[in-house]
């Protein structure tokens, strides 16, 4: 009886979604207006900032607590009742991390055209998700991605491998998200970084612990609305101010023309150094074409392999809704990604036309706000104030007393954060941007944490350790593991690990190499066998990991072993020998030696971020060859593959069986 | 409705490969001609830059809504649609 009631309650909630989230969005706008009025009345900025951060986190926590559940199906797959449209929004929030929100536009600002590899790579992968994977996994009826591996590839060894890949990729990623919440909170609220990390942790746990996937889904929808409003509003206002049209995605073409003209005039007037200036629209300045396309490829295939994304499509009511939901996901992600180039162009135009070329005495004030927190350097020192800048520049021989482009070092995070100030908007908008960045980081952390904890509780504990565990104990274990993983990630983040940001990019290549070949062939090729898949996963993931770790942490040894495949020039080889000798005689020289070795330790010049370029073909080839040499899968497995390909009919793993329910 | 699993899968696979080729085109092939495309300028946007910043993304979104519709039609016509 109780169960029937709760289902009915859930149904009412689902049918009222439109009204609930419209009200929520209206309430959010009203909240922004109230804070804007308070600001005009003279309430200090610090309180406005705190208001934004704590009230939004409180709202997410309330949604998380209302959505608490004691049912396994609700906890793992939100009861499979999330409509395509809302699942799309939740996926958008799940997908767009703190780094996408804060750093994407900055990367485009610094790299120009070459940075667009990230824009393409982080969107196009959804085509692969839709046509190759998501609808089939939904039909399969899995609770987690490793569930599929276990059923299709006969047992717990394949499941275990999938769990290892999943945990390796997701853990570094979630650490980076918690790190991002710490950075945002400490920057805007002046909180201590370590304290900020644990406050972020609390926000994440309140959203996810009681309600699992159900709670995470409905908070992610709420977080998406905050983050997209926060991202679009400043740049829309800026576009209206400058060009009179509130569509920045259309108006920044003019900015691109102005940027190109300014680039030429700065070089000819000596304000920019032709050697260090990267023309904004010129391709292949930072990456050669091989690495540009390899990066797009690895990010796309990685998108289609990351379990926290794939598991979102387990929550839709049907296979048809799962397909539609991928389309909505990409649409909601697209709204942010196709705006990022506009942010970058407007910021660049501002810097080129109104920052560079000014007399040091009339330098723009907003630079000092970011110089004070170490994000902008002028003439090699943090631009704390005018005196510091003038002193540093006067130490440079032949400095003309005018700010030149090469004097300026801007951290990519500044671009999105400073846009409200550049456009002269009130502080409330800056607070809104901080709330948006926080929403992006929290929502991604929730999804990742759930992916890890579910794999450990469902796949390892329930499926491999105790098949007879009662529902109550399964949910208890899931929640305890969630807290343990979250605390470990927060602790790791609080130590500020040096390579954390590059590790996130690695997660894509590792997931692609470890998961993608076995997943796709498992669905699309009936002949793929257990031995083939297991070896393919081991070799694909192994070669990718070997390349990453070798080129990053053991570069000299890696180079010496594979020097015949390296793209090092004769000069670089000579320098390698010279630095090696220096390192042997003086340990202080070894850092420079290692740094140089990293630049030439490679196969055909491929950067280690794209290691899936090697892992994927090896994974596919291994599965193909080994499968042909091993006996075909049983008729039962082949029938199962047939059934996954048809939208109609019962799921392969029926929820009833998976839930271990008595009826 | 007559169910024909083999024909359903043939049509499904053909749709997958069509989408896959479009994906290859908008992800990689068109961007190989960025330098030539950049000589064409529309509303201030060099076309090669525009395709990477927005054009391909718009194509991906349209492709996915079209795919959902087309695959659903195949499922209905071959009798494999849900309910």
From TrEMBL, chain A:
PROSITE patterns: NA_SOLUT_SYMP_3 (PS50283). It is found in: Membrane. The chain crosses the membrane at residues 20-38, 47-66, 116-137, 157-176, 188-209, 221-240, 292-314, 326-346, 427-456, 476-494, 500-525, 532-555, 612-630. Keywords: Membrane, Transmembrane, Transmembrane helix, Transport. Belongs to the sodium:solute symporter (SSF) (TC 2.A.21) family. Pfam families: SSF (PF00474). InterPro entries: Na/Glc_symporter_sf, Na/solute_symporter, Na/solute_symporter_VC_2705, Sodium:Solute_Symporter. It is a multi-pass membrane protein. CDD domains: SLC5sbd_u4. The keyword Kinase does not apply. This is Cation/acetate symporter.
From TrEMBL, chain B:
Residues 7-78 form the Sodium symporter small subunit domain. Keywords: Membrane, Transmembrane, Transmembrane helix. It comes from the Bacteria. InterPro entries: Na_symporter_ssu. The chain crosses the membrane at residues 20-43, 49-68. It holds the Pfam family DUF4212. This is Solute:sodium symporter small subunit. It comes from Filomicrobium insigne.
